[in-house]
Design a protein that fits this description.
380 residues; alpha+beta; HSP40/DNAj peptide-binding domain; four-stranded mixed sheet; 23% helix
């Protein structure tokens, strides 16, 4: 609670709900992002919206007046019969009997918070690893520029509902075995708002907002993963009658990469090398997310050997360095040999003492074929 919410809205500490609502509407029209996109003004708009959220709620306002944090967990009037789980008793009665005592609730607030929007954003592996700035286009509800959220045609205003006389609800008396029972329900003519629009705005049909496709530039931080959600507070749809915006929820979808598989912040891949390169050693160029790296394969490398390139993986989302890139080596044995190649391999086997004539696998011989026989026969 760094700011005094009364000071933010410019009202007295004993201001009524109507005075708080009028102050908010006046500031919202002036500071709304659809009217004034300046970043500093948008921050001011969020502050004003937060102040209205607190002071328009009796429980949160009471907590603020007592020096408590109205957004603290468990706040909002939980506990006690009159505030069961944060719900006022008259709300519970209304849910069961169609309303509390007549005139007890008053008209409903016309200004409501807008709906939050969920948007899927597809990114390449490099974009999730290093972050990216994207332009996203989506349909949403924005403030009606013609009526500035009032919903009325030019030169006209809302009028008091003649059915409920501005109360927002109508009462009905019925007879039961308990005697006369009086119930209240929202006024069907004004939908519980206490006022009606005789001449709706021609552009928004009285809703105070219109639907349009808009484009937003968003910054995706480095290190996001498939399924990561990013909340952009106050960037969603404008609420009915010029109410505060909802949020935008960005859901990250990472496209498959042709080479790398992501495991957390580490990257894995497999490189297939010829038998001769594994035996003699080799050097080859390898494309990482950072560019080309020269990889040295030492002589005698076996299948399954892993080469680790430190700090060549994905950036940690908390900004504390990067993961690793692990390259698994798969040694490829030729399946078909021509006569010259077979002769060369036989000569190599002879020079290494690994040659054996077919059918002569004597025990204890140290040749290649006896080693294979012993290896496969050891488990019998």
């Amino acid at each position: 609670m760094a700011r005094d919410y009364y000071q933010v809205l410019g009202v007295r500490r004993d201001a009524s709900k109507d005075e708080i609502k009028k102050a908010y509407r006046r500031l919202a029209r002036e500071l709304h992002p659809d009217i004034n996109p300046d970043p500093a003004t948008q921050e001011r708009f969020k502050e004003v919206t937060q102040a209205y959220e607190v002071l328009s709620d009796e429980n949160k306002r009471r907590m603020f007046d007592m020096g408590q944090d109205p957004f603290a967990p468990g706040g909002g009037g939980a506990g006690g019969f009159g505030g069961a789980a944060g719900f006022p008793f008259d709300d519970i009665m209304n849910a069961f009997f169609g309303g509390g005592q007549p005139g007890g609730r008053g008209p409903r607030d016309r200004v409501r918070r807008g709906r939050s929007i969920k948007i899927r954003v597809e990114l390449d592996l490099a974009e999730t690893a290093f972050g990216v700035t994207k332009e996203i286009t989506f349909p949403t509800a924005i403030l009606c520029a013609t009526c500035q959220g009032e919903g009325t045609a030019a030169g006209t205003h809302r009028t008091t509902c003649d059915m409920c006389h501005g109360q927002g609800e109508v009462s009905q008396v019925t007879r039961s075995f308990l005697g006369q029972v009086m119930t209240s329900r929202p006024c069907p003519q004004c939908a519980g708002q206490g006022s009606v629009i005789p001449e709706p705005c021609p552009d928004c049909a009285g809703e105070g907002r219109v639907r349009e496709k808009v484009t937003r530039t968003v910054k995706i931080p480095a290190g996001v993963d498939d399924g990561t959600r990013i909340q952009l507070a106050g960037e969603g749809e404008v609420g009915p009658n010029g109410g505060p915006r909802g949020d935008i929820i960005l859901e990250i979808v990472q496209r498959p990469h042709p080479t790398f598989e992501r495991r957390g912040d580490d990257l894995q891949c497999t490189v297939t090398v010829p038998m001769t390169a594994a035996a003699l050693g080799a050097s080859f160029a390898f494309e990482t997310l950072d560019g080309t790296e020269n990889i040295d394969l030492r002589p005698g490398t076996n299948s399954g050997h892993v080469i680790t390139l430190s700090d060549k993986g994905v950036t940690h989302l908390d900004g504390g360095g990067r993961g690793d890139l692990r390259i698994r080596v798969d040694v490829e044995t030729p399946g078909k040999l021509d006569e010259e190649q077979e002769a060369l391999l036989r000569k190599l086997a002879e020079l290494r003492g690994e040659d054996r004539a077919p059918g002569r696998f004597s025990p204890g011989h140290g040749g290649l074929f006896s080693k294979l026989r012993d290896a496969f026969g050891a488990g019998k």
